[in-house]
Write a structure and sequence with these properties.
transmembrane helix; membrane; mainly alpha; 84% helix; rod-shaped; 32 residues; transmembrane
Length: 32
């Protein structure tokens, strides 16, 4: 059970990180 929760946490963090990185890149290049 702990492993599945850990896996879900890693997936969630990776999704959040991807969104933040994309937003930062877009703002840097003034695409938004």
């Amino acid at each position: 059970m702990n492993l599945s929760i850990f896996g879900a946490g890693i997936y969630h963090l990776s999704v959040v990180a991807a969104i933040i990185i994309y937003a930062a890149w877009a703002l840097k290049n003034q695409i938004i």
